[in-house]
Amino acid sequence: MSIPSLPQILLTSTAAYASAFYLSVLKSPTPIRLAKTREALSLIHCTVATALSLACLRQHSDALFPALPPAAPPSDTPSHADRRASESALPLIATRSAFANAITAFETGYLLSDSLILLYSVRLTHLSYVAKRSKQRLFGLNMRHLAYHHAGLSAALLYLQWYIHHGREKGVLVVVMMMLMNASSPFGTLRWWLVNFGSGRETAIVLTTAAYLTVYAVTRVGLIYAILGVWGRQTGVSALQAFGSLRWQCKLGTGTMGAVNIAWLAMGVSNFVRRSLNVIVKPGG
Fold this sequence. Notes:
With 285 residues, this protein is an all-alpha fold. 76% of the residues lie in helices and 0% in strands.
């Protein structure tokens, strides 16, 4: 079975997501309806993207965990230029995959549509509140910030598509590994739903939040360390040493992503502890 071309996948993904959203809110484009529809589509997308990423990584497990050559003796320590060339030839970086490329095109189309949908939702929600047509405010989802975040990601992935189109892509398996971060989003969506529409279900909210933070810690913090571990194994160093050996651009991007995710996780755990204590210690108890 042949894989469709990347432009076809990108355009189909963009159009399918936008069309599904439009048809779902056409008759009642209220802030609540917009948010519910967007979150439902996000849940479906993240589940599919995670499954595809796992399937792709399983297909290329030999590139993630190849048989390692004997370590070079200290006297044969390569020069900086030789080491960079050697790193570019590592299976984790050099492996090319039509399946992985197709997944990145699928993700690019989703992020492009979602960015526009989020900006549209922000605008409509603002107008509805100003006109006092909507009184309920939703918690746990900053659509404006998420729109900017997804717009930045879609721009980066579009840049990657240019490299793929010219046969110059490198590290596409690393991109697919990072897409496993999507695995935490369904738990976040369930938590968002309970917080906004599950009045009185405090225990369910606490349990769902605990599950979300656990999966977030594994897939958005631990995953970064795991990727560095794979890189380190193929270069004969530890994960932390692998981070230190990255080019400054990669080091800046990886460090920033790790720091932001750790900071967000710390804030989430802090809020979770406070909310849990409020559930356990009832007023007058």
